[in-house]
Amino acid sequence: MKALMKWESGAGHVALRETERPVPGPDEVLIRVAAAGICGTDIKIWHGTTWSNPPVILGHEYSGVVVGLGRNVTGLQPGDRVVSETAQVVCGKCAYCRSGRELMCDRRLSIGYGVNGAMAEYIAVRQGIVHKIPDSLDFDKAALCEPFAVALHGLLDHTALTAADRVLVMGPGAIGQLVAQAARSCGAKTVLVGLPQDQERLDAARRAGIDVTLTRLTDEAMQELTGGRGFDVAVDCTGAEPAIRQAMKAVKKAGTFIQLGLTKPELTIDYSLLTAKELQIVGTFGHQYHNWEMAIELMASGKVQVDHLITSRYDLEDWQRGFEEMQGSKGIKILLYPNGEQGVEP
Predict the structure, then answer these.
(1) Contact in structure between 35 and 140 (CB atoms under 8 Å)
(2) What's the pLDDT score for residue 339?
(3) Is the pLDDT of residue 346 over 60?
(4) Which single residue of 78, 124, 242, 254 has CA 20 to 30 Å from 194?
(5) What average pLDDT does the segment 167-182 reach?
């Protein structure tokens, strides 16, 4: 089968290769991949700036169709439309695994960089991370379940958000847009902030129902949007120091600041805000099972809008065009089709 593989550590060393079609183990499901999303992590693996376990097939955001079952698998059958979580290998015994936080497991290996991922014609994953999707959710949108689950976990698992709240989201990339949609689904007034070069992304967010989009959060805008009180919740999805400082300044007293975007190891931030304003500062990573169920329900029901996030689609053979477009910040979410656009029938 065709697969996009990182075959050696370091910069580059990514290419389309022919490899063996996976055979599902006793507790695994074989899935024919319909659509796979390009993530910033994939770009970093391409450039050798983040960890991977080569030789390994890239891709951890995807949708597809069940085409094979291990002998112990129940509740699924060939033809089921599915997505899956990412933690393929976990110990299953530690406190994190037992409490549903498998992404915290010290032995975790995730698809796409720890073990073989979804930028291939087929992927085999353990049944415990597979979720069925309804016919009302098309494969392209379903491929966004993983980043949406990350957004839902980051925002809703760390707050008690209500329609009375004001939410600030820094960064209009895919995760920032999905955090804004998650806030919108709760009825909260949502402000999405980017840079001048993000205007097209911000315009798309407005068309998808986000209340306010800005290329700069000024003191005047703060006064108008919050009456000078500040935002109840601020979420940084950029990992950029200026955005983090601005978001912490914009949170109200006793408000919540959530760090979702990955940062460099050391930052210079004003910690006097933490004490003087009694801020709740939360770090967040990954997702849990219930976040996936909510993501599927919200997208399938049309309660959140994600069509505007898919900006380009390519066959797997054109992966480099997609990767270059993604790293150039020209797209929001770019999909690859390992089996062609119509090639997902069992």
Answers:
(1) yes
(2) 96
(3) no
(4) 254
(5) 98
- Give percent of the chain with pLDDT exceeding 90: 92
Q: Where do we find the tokens 């698998």?
A: 73
Residue 110's nearest CA partner among 23, 35, 48, 39 is 39
Query: Residue 180: what are its φ and ψ, rounded to 5°?
Result: -60, -40
Joined together, the tokens standing for residue 63 give 């949708």
- For residue 322, give the nearest of 58, 38, 4, 56 by alpha carbon: 38
Average pLDDT rounded to a whole number, residues 324-337 = 90
Domains and CATH numbers, the chain: 2-144+306-337 (3.90.180.10), 151-283 (3.40.50.720)
Q: Distance between CA atoms of 125 and 47, rounded to whole angstroms?
A: 26
For residue 34, count other CB atoms closer than 10 A to its CB. 28
What CA–CA distances, in Å, run from 125 to 29, 73, 116?
Answer: 5, 11, 9
| Bridge partner list, 32 | 65, 122
Between 342 and 302, the higher pLDDT residue: 302
DSSP labels for 106-174?
TT-EEBTTTB--SSBSEEEEEGGGEEE--TTS-HHHHTTHHHHHHHHHHHHTS----TT-EEEEE--SH
Would you say residue 271 has pLDDT above 90? no
pTM flag (> 0.85)? yes
Give the pLDDT of residue 342.
58
Between CA 208 and CA 251, with CA 247 as vertex, the angle to 5 degrees is: 100
